[in-house]
Structure formats: C-alpha cells, structure tokens
C-alpha cells in the first residue's frame, strides 16, 4: 500500500491535458548543482491537481517544497547507491519491457488481429483436411511439386470423388488412416493460423485452395459451421470397455447400478470415488478440467456434456470409445464479451503465427523510418565465411579479419560490426534453417539481423522518440528508488525501533483515547414482540444462548445477538438515553428493534500502545519522514531560482 501511495501522484501514464500551456524549460532549482527543470515540475503538478484532496498541496509554494523534498529523497537514494541494486535493476527492466510493448508492436495490426480472433471465437468449424508434406524452407521445385499435387487431388474432389477416400489415399498426415482426415470441431487458436484462416474463410461444403503452413500444403474441406458452445465443467463416472465380452458386460452392469444409486439420491462424488475407473479424476469426485469443442478425444462425450442444460443435471449412461460414462454438469461457461478476453487474446496472438504479422508490420515501418547504409565489401566478406556445414550445425564461427569492420550503419549514428553478424549467424544454426542455395540462406540471415538491430535501435531510443515514454520511465525509476529508500530509512525503522516508538507514543498518547465504552450484549430483531420477549428473558437472568434457543425455532432466526465491548456512538451499539449497567429499554433504529444488556461501563481513557500499535506506527513513520526531510535539506545544497519560479507560478495560474 505504501508503494502505491508513493507512486500514485508521480507515476501516471497519461499525459497533461492537450490544451495546457507549454512551460519553457528552464532550471527551477538545483540540488548539489544538479539541475531540475520547470517543465517536469509543471507536468507533475498538473497531473496531481485532481488527485490531491488537501488544498494546501495545490498551493504552488507548498507544492514546490513537496517536490524538492521528493527530489531530495531520490538524491539520497542515489548517494547510497540503491540504483545499483540487482532487484531494483530487474524491476526497472521488467517495467520498461511491459511499458514499451505499446510502442514496439504495431497496435493497429494487433487490434485488427484481436477483433478477427474474437469474431472467429463466436463460431466453431467442423473440417477435414488432406496434407501434402513440404518443408517450409524447401527449394522452389519441391514446393511447386507439392502444390501441384494438392491441386490435382482438389480437382478429383471437386469432380465428385469422396474427400475421406482421397484423404486416406493421399494425405501425409499419419492420423488420416484412422480419422480419414476428419479434424472434428474447433474454434480460434486451435490450429496454426494459416490453416485456421482457410477453415474460417471457406464456406460450408466447400474445399479450399491449397493453403501453406509450416507442415506443408493442406486442402481444407469445411463440413459444418455452428455457434460456439463455449466451455463446460463436468464430472464423470467411467467404467472401462472390457477386453472381452465378460468384461464388457461387467462394465455395462456396473454403470447401470451406479446410475440407479444416483437416481436414489446417493452422492455423485462418493460414487465416483468408489466406482469410476478414470483414476485421474475419481479422487476429485470425477471432476474434469473445463473444456470446449474439439478439446477432448471423444466427440460423443463432448456432445453429451454440452447437451446437459441445468447445473447438477446428470446424464443417462452412454458409451464412448473408452468406456461407459455418466456425466454431471457442474458449470457452463458461455463465450465472454470481447472486453473480458481482449488481454488474453493479445497474449495468445503474440505467441502464435499471428505475431509474425505484427513483427513484419513494425519491421516495414522501421525500414522506412531509419536509413540503413550497408558496407557492400563487408557484406560480401561475411558471405565468404559461410559454408554448407551450417545445415548440419557443424559450422564454426570464423575469426573476422577486421574486428572493427562496420557491416552497416543505422540512421548515421549506430554502427553495427561484422563480428556481431557472424556471431548471430552462428547462433542461428540452432534454428535448423534449410534454405538453399547458400546465398539465399545468407540473404535471409542478413535481413533478419538488420530487422533485429533496427528493433533494438528503436527500443533503445524510445525515450527520445516519445517524450511521454521518457517521462513515465523517469518517474517510475525515481519511484522505485524512493520505495527502496523509504523501506530502508523509515518504514522498517518505525516497525523495529521499539524504544523510539514507545517514546513517540508517550509524547502523543492524548491523541489515542477511548471514548466511553460498555461491555454488553446487543439483541436485535425486526419484530417488536420478539424483542419484548427477549427483554423479559433478560430480566429473568436468562443467557443469550437460552434466549436464542427459545426464540429461534422452526429454522427461523427471529433474534440475533452481538456481544463485546463497544464505544458509545459506534455503529454496533444502538443509541440509548443513558448507558448504565442493566437491561435497557427497547429502542427502534430503522427496521430493527433493540434491547441491550450492559454488564460493565468504562469511562473515557487513554488506549494502551498495544491497542493502537498500527496507528502509532503509521504516525511515527510520518513523524520520522517529516524530520528526515529537514535533515536532508541540511545534507544537500539547494538553490531555488526565485525569478524562474515566479514566472512558472504566473503561467500555471
């Protein structure tokens, strides 16, 4: 909470209002000769205006003092070397990576892909395919051969030949011999992106043109399309299909007996634990992980699960490829609105083939934005280093003749050396690139390397390219330092300095007062006659348990009690004419009637340290911080440019 409080006013991603008057950048003050400028002061002040509740903090003189105090703490943190801490550096790096994501990817393309994925998520496609294997880096002749083969088979299908028969005969997908090319039902993110696109863009009953994926060329036939059924969570009881007729009969008999027990009202979970032969779920009462269409290997199981309409509904016994089942519906999970899945879809898009579209879009923009000047001689020299051993991962990185040789320059100020490219090529052997001939492979490696270096150059210059990014990073950097410093200098000290805490409490104990208190039992009811009965029982000396036992019958709660020590005026204690030992009169507050049994009264008194330790620690922390800033003002030399500050005040007003 303290971290959030520290950063709340100073770390905001949003900029100042667009129509705010620009403040000329001048030195506002210095701390040990380090300058701090008017533009930062004005920007932070404007951002905080709507956040501060204390009007005194809106006063510019007061705010300058607060701002100087903030910068003094950061200066102290740097003086102590906290900026060199490993945890600090890692946290800052992690935050920058997260923040830069909005700048280092094409947000327009990303948004389009999210919208496309969501639209597809609303539907499910039932499709079959025929695969013609070809390596994604295959030679053009091999690629053309596979494509032509796919086109020939497509002609056969369009001419009326059975697609399943063709899949069995021609598909190089090993599973085609069993499933005849049938992939069942699926929705978005279940298939590689090019295949998914072909399936969703092909109309029902049609066959796509050959579509290329990393596995080869596919012919996709769309058999059916329906609305997405969402996901379900179910539990099941299963008896395995037997290896012989006797075992098969036993499995069927057992599941029927279990079903009868369920109809008699016995617990599904208990029966699953006793009789289900699915050992991965029986210990959990048969519960399975939630799933959607096409995520299980049994379509009949999925269809039965989705056919259940009501929570706790139980299916009749049915047989799948694996055995006999009874399913109990635990919960249905309909498709969520786009607002709820946008972040999840964004993450998934960055992990699949769609991410290549985002990267390509950014690469194209960076190629247009920055000029890359190639050293042709160095380019040709690096080509000579490469040989066919690269394909077998046996290529050894050679020593570059001139380690200082520049391969290309980005934007006239970033020189990239040949040694960096040769190292990159060596590392790329692990990618198993099979692009031939060698010259084509080299061209691919070089272009990928240039794109990587352009992205790196762009990322390193985000602060210059986007001032608002630089502002947020500066503020977060200072905020992290301040958190570490406050933890070290103030918060831990307030918690562990028991002697100082006791002295602070002793000097300020009049601030920590109990009001008048009573030790009491408070009885409440919405019915006046019930509370009158409770009052009579109390006057006869009956206990609270006795009263509840007598008045709360037939599963109805007519009266409730709340016992403890209460401050007069607290919400838990109804307002009485007087608070004295004994049984009070009946009072009504809102819809409730009350009677109070007061056992003891306590006059106003000072709270002990143990009773208010949390509040005292918080006050002690504020006290330490206030006096600490005064000490920092003595430790560092501060010079304020009064004339400049006067101009800033006039412009901000």
Shape: flat
Query: CATH top level of the domain at 123-227?
Result: Alpha Beta
- Looking at the structure, the CATH topology of the domain at 123-227 is Chitinase A, domain 3
Radius of gyration: 37 Å
Structural class: alpha+beta
Distance between the termini: 33 Å
Helix content: 40-55%
How many individual β-strands? 21
Oligomer: single chain
CATH level-two architecture of the domain at 123-227: Roll
For the largest beta-sheet, the strand count, sense and barrel status come to:
5 strands, antiparallel
Q: DSSP helix count?
A: 25
**Could you tell me the strand content as a percent range?**
15-25%
- Could you report the average pLDDT, rounded to the nearest whole number? 89
Which residue ranges are poorly predicted, with pLDDT under 50 across at least 5 consecutive positions?
1-20
Describe the structure.
The protein is α+β, with helices and mostly antiparallel strands and 653 residues long. Among the domains are: 123-227, Chitinase A, domain 3 (Roll); 231-333, Chitinase A, domain 3 (Roll); 370-462, no CATH class; 513-606, Roll (Chitinase A, domain 3), CATH 3.10.50. The chain has 25 helices and 21 strands. Strands 15, 16, 17, 18 and 19 form a 5-stranded antiparallel beta sheet that branches. It has a 4-stranded antiparallel beta sheet with strand order 4-3-6-5, sandwiched between helices. Strands 8-7-10-9 form a 4-stranded antiparallel beta sheet. Helix 1 packs antiparallel against helix 20 (467-496), helix 15 (354-369) crosses helix 18 (438-460) and helix 20 crosses helix 24. The radius of gyration is 37 Å and the shape is flat. The two termini are 33 Å apart. The model is unreliable at 1-20 (pLDDT under 50).
